Amino acid sequence: MTGRLTLHFDGGCRPNPGPIETAVVMRGVAHFRDDLGSGDNNEAEWLALLHAVALARAASADDVLLVGDSAVVIGQASGRTKCRSPQLQPHLDAFKAAIAGIARVRCRLVPRSKNLAGIALARRRDSAASPG
């Protein structure tokens, strides 16, 4: 096990609902995915969180801090709020299964301006929208 690892995650779609894109920043490197189908912003945030957990598992981390700006996802993933959405419940179930075996997992809510993955995703969108 590699020990402690902090991952910032963010997901979004434009329009909402629409094509989902996610970003995870781990050890200063941004990992993007945009092959995730269509959905709404909450689904995009959940898929970003699941991507972050997959990266943490691949790094053999046993103490994981997941940092995001979605109050819905952070609340549900941390167990502070109940998931009442049949649309989001499968993501919560997948998260619980994915973190099984990781000794310590914490979730922290930060403002969007402090979410490194959100910043990376916005920069990627801006550079894709700018003409060559």
Automatic annotation (TrEMBL):
Residues 1-132 form the RNase H type-1 domain. SUPFAM superfamilies: Ribonuclease H-like. One of its GO terms (molecular function) is nucleic acid binding. This is Ribonuclease HI. It comes from Sphingomonas lenta.
